[in-house]
């Protein structure tokens, strides 16, 4: 970006202009949603800049807690929210009726905590951390009578979803249900600028992204047929998921093998998948029978964005956005990314089901 030139430009699509333009498509709207989105963009900006100045591993750890406090306080003071669900808080926060609005916001203020301590030096500012947040927004039916069920809705009811990635640049990727747009923070302007309009994920990708260190635990549950497992352990080593990953490495149709990329921060891995194509997978395994990733603030927002960008998201049983969560911190296996790659996983699961 040419920051000096940009400072004099009046035609840049900032996040504020974008949100206001979106609002003008709904003449009946009162602007609450726009105000809420602007608050979230403001918060992301704050955290994006904070990431650059935190140099102590220990201080950065506290960023989890700090960012949660900042998010919760700012969302409450926006006057547009009624329930907040954060990864950091065991219970949902019910906003005091005097400050209540009609939106439920679910978020993970700082996702990818295992990567917080391994930043990359960018010279004078110290460490640059790969830490992220994810959010999803729902609307409540009756703001006077708010219950936890207002937030336990299927992902397909979401109004908007997005994430902010604090990487080599600070990016806000957002969908309000009409495509996906990416904004990059220009620190000299203090504004998010539309840099990636109408993101479309390639129909098929060349990358798979998974924690392959879990491979030992991918075997099918053996409880039903302990006898078989003792007699023929090798058949279990070729479980569905194991076979899929082997196929990525040793394709049997003459195509080139896929590359493996895994950062270990969902936002970073999904962001790359969105831009380059491919598939991101976190299946269930013996250690985590329900998968690891959280339905409300990881699986849903990312699935919403994937679908909006032309990709797919699948839990191993159904379309991820059709899931109806029963508790706020529920987990689910997840396979998301390019349309054709997810289609392949779906076909494998369907074949497996027919074999059972
Ligand atoms: P983390 O535990 O570091 O907070 O949701 C949590 C998450 O990171 C995701 O961001 C990431 O995709 C995943 O867990 C990484 O899990 P593994 O370390 O098991 O691969």
Automatic annotation (TrEMBL):
One of its GO terms (molecular function) is metal ion binding. CDD domains: FBPase. Residues 13-197 form the Fructose-1-6-bisphosphatase class I N-terminal domain. One of its GO terms (biological process) is gluconeogenesis. The keyword Ribonucleoprotein does not apply. Its cofactor is Mg(2+). This is Fructose-1,6-bisphosphatase, cytosolic. It comes from Zingiber officinale.
């Amino acid at each position: 970006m040419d920051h000096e030139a940009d400072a004099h430009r009046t035609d840049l699509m900032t996040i504020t202009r974008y949100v206001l333009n979106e609002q003008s498509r709904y003449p009946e709207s009162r602007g609450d949603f726009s105000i809420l989105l602007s608050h979230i963009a403001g918060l992301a900006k704050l955290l994006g800049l904070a990431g650059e100045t935190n140099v102590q591993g220990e201080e950065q750890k506290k960023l989890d807690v700090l960012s949660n406090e900042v998010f919760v306080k700012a969302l409450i003071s926006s006057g547009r929210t009624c329930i907040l669900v954060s990864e950091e808080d065991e219970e949902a926060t019910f906003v005091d009726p005097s400050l209540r609005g009609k939106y439920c916001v679910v978020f993970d203020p700082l996702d990818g905590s295992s990567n917080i301590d391994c930043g990359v030096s960018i010279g004078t500012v110290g460490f640059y951390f790969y830490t992220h947040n994810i959010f999803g927004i729902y609307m409540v039916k009756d703001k006077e009578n708010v219950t936890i069920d207002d937030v336990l809705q299927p992902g397909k009811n979401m109004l908007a979803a997005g994430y902010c990635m604090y990487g080599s640049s600070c990016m806000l990727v957002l969908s309000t249900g009409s495509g996906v747009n990416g904004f990059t923070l220009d620190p000299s302007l203090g504004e998010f600028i539309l840099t990636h309009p109408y993101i479309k994920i390639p129909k098929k990708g060349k990358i798979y992204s998974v924690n392959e260190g879990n491979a030992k635990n991918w075997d099918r549950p053996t409880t039903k047929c302990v006898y078989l497992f003792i007699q023929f352990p090798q058949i279990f080593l070729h479980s569905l998921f194991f076979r899929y990953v082997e196929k990525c490495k040793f394709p049997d149709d003459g195509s080139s093998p896929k590359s493996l990329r895994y950062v270990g921060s969902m936002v970073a891995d999904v962001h790359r998948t969105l831009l380059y194509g491919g598939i991101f997978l976190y299946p269930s395994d013996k250690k985590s029978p329900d998968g690891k990733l959280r339905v409300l603030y990881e699986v849903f927002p990312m699935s919403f964005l994937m679908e909006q960008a032309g990709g797919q998201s699948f839990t191993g049983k159904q379309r991820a956005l059709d899931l109806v969560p029963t508790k706020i911190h529920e987990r689910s296996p997840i396979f998301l990314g390019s349309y054709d790659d997810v289609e392949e996983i779906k076909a494998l699961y369907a074949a497996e089901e027919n074999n059972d």
